[in-house]
Amino acid sequence: MKIAAAQTKPIDGNIEANLAAHVHLTTLAADNGVKLIVFPELSLTGYQRESAAQLAFIENDSRLDKLKSLAVDKNIIIVIGAPIQIKTQLHIGTFILHPDNSTSIYTKQFLHQGEEVFFAPNFEFNPTIKLEDELISLAICADITNPLHTANASKNKTTLYVASLFYTPNGIAEAFEELSHYAYLYSMNILMANYTGQSYIYEAAGQSAFWNNKGHLITQLKSNEEALLIVTKENNQWYPHQIIAQNENNNP
User: Fold this and answer.
1) Are 134 and 102 in contact (CB under 8 A)?
2) Which residues pair with 232 in a beta bridge?
3) Are 41 and 92 within 8 A, CB to CB?
4) Which of 55, 147, 204, 234 is 20 to 30 A from 133, alpha carbon to alpha carbon?
5) Are 165 and 40 in contact (CB under 8 A)?
6) How does 58-82 read in b/e, with b if 16+ C-beta sit within 10 Å?
7) The whole model's pTM is what?
8) Which one, of 58, 67, 63, 85, lies nearest residue 30 by Cα?
9) What 8-state DSSP symbol labels residue 32?
10) For residues 13 and 54, what is the distance between their CA atoms, to the nearest angstrom?
11) pLDDT per residue over 85-138, tens digit each?
12) Count of CB atoms within 10 A of residue 145's CB?
């Protein structure tokens, strides 16, 4: 089984261009045998605060139709980030698009300082994903800074923890320490996707990565790569598989 983290450089506020990049990378991943692909936090809009309400998606947003069809046609789970309006509240959220044409939503539970002005935290939308013999829990950025988040994932018997981030160079070393520690403490494999380039007013650190359930860093991208990081599971062990640049053709 193969899974992938997409390290993207979003165009702030340009949903059409970002959607096209998601379609391209998802197709590239699926054509290389990937069964789940995860994108960074707010990947469809770029990291936004003040303009998030104007860019927000709704629960059954038609702008996702092409990606939904791709999930079905390519038999791949697509995990993508967006501001999501649910009833009267705006959340930093994740859409999970499934091969059976269903969609589920995860909402960020622990906000970064300053986000509470624009977004509401929410613990209600917290699905798990079953993929072969893996039980997957999701996290968005500052969720990983609260030990309660991974503790709850462990209580839910999570075997693969998937984190969508927007981390800067100042914070990425701490994120690596936290994720390695959680992987070891709870015997969870961890896949992390981060931006590269700049979004909002911050530079992203890149370095999307994968840790095994002993806390060992298995593979990571560089800070400036727009690429797919693919890992594969064989005989209950995870291994680096390949790194595919965003502009490569669909060849293994």
Assistant:
1) no
2) 2, 239
3) yes
4) 147
5) yes
6) eeebeebeebbebbeebebbbbbbb
7) 0.96
8) 67
9) T
10) 9
11) 999 999 999 999 999 999 999 999 999 999 999 999 999 999 999 999 999 999
12) 14
